[in-house]
Give the backbone structure.
Amino acid sequence: MPEPLQLNLGPEQIKKLSSHYLHEGRKQESWRIGDIEIRGRQLSTTVSMRSIYTSGTDAKGFHLSIFSTLEFLSELMIVYAHAWAGLQEKTKEGWMLESATKSVRAIRNPDQIHVVMKIASIKKLGENMMCLADYAVTDDQGGLFEVRLKGFLS
């Protein structure tokens, strides 16, 4: 068994070992939600990346990060909950209470990110709302993320 790792890392060593994407590249990404279709407890849409970051260590080019994914999935929950409550504009703040993500296969197409959101439960709690949703995020190249979010709107 290898010896336990014991190091003291300074700023320069940390920088050399760190992800450029998490430190700088993440700030370059932006996305756009296309038309949304809501049918009962299911929401469907296509998301496209307006600007992307490509990692120098990924030979295949673009891959969707779970961070951008969680952003637009949270936005979709906020939109759905407001529409479900009959509200015409955003009046509630969204809070992510829990999340579970599974990156089954990389999503590589930045222009065709398909999202199906299925509401497991949604309810009003006084003036607030609680929502639990399961998402399948796919592309046309076999990519798949499975995500479950629990959100609170107050």
Summary: Strands lie at 30-39, 42-51, 94-105, 113-125, 128-138, 144-153. Residues 66-84 form the longest helix (19 residues). The radius of gyration is 18 Å. Helices lie at 11-17, 20-23, 66-84.
